[in-house]
Amino acid sequence: MGHVYVVATFYNAVDYIQYLKGKCKLEDVRRVDAEALVDTGATFPALPEDKVEELGLPLIGEQPAETAEGAKSVKLAAQLIIKIEDRSSETYAIVRPKDTTPLIGVVALEQMGYRVNSATGS
User: Fold this and answer.
1) CA-wise closest residue to 60 among 44, 41, 79, 47
2) How far apart are CA 16 and CA 62, in angstroms?
3) Which of 38, 41, 75, 106 has the most CB atoms at less than 10 Å from its CB?
4) Is the sign of the CA dihedral 76, 77, 79, 81 positive or negative?
5) Cα–Cα distances in Å, from 65 out to 7, 94, 95, 104, 109?
6) Distance from C-alpha of 74 to C-alpha of 56, rounded to nearest angstrom
């Protein structure tokens, strides 16, 4: 099986809640549309630092984590909503280096009710 990518929309959750309350228009909500790698070996989603800044997500500190590069400390951003098709998830995100590919981990996938079919890669 190869890599599985999805088109996802990442929203600033605070802005999105204001939209849901009717206090702003959807086009006023900070958002990023991107092709993201579905990573079933990752727990949390991960966004590049430039996208975290574009969304205006607050950093909540650093945490020890086991990453593809081994054990290290990672920055966490809060107040992220991820939308894939008609499903959404609110979660923390690991901050990755600028210009890297966004990742969707199993926490967000499970919150949205998605499963990766290892036979078809979809």
Assistant:
1) 79
2) 25
3) 38
4) negative
5) 26, 10, 12, 16, 19
6) 18
- Measured between alpha carbons, how far is 59 from 87 in angstroms, rounded to an integer? 25
- The pTM assigned to this predicted structure is 0.90
Q: How far apart are CA 122 and CA 117, in angstroms?
A: 5
Q: What is the pLDDT of residue 120?
A: 60
Q: Which residues of the chain carry a pLDDT beneath 70?
A: 1-2, 117-122
CB 77 within 8 A of CB 14: no
* Residue 111 burial (CB count, 10 A): 14
75 touches 62 (CB < 8 A): yes
What pLDDT does residue 26 have? 96
Q: What is the domain partition of the chain in residue ranges?
A: 4-112
Position 118 scores a pLDDT of 61
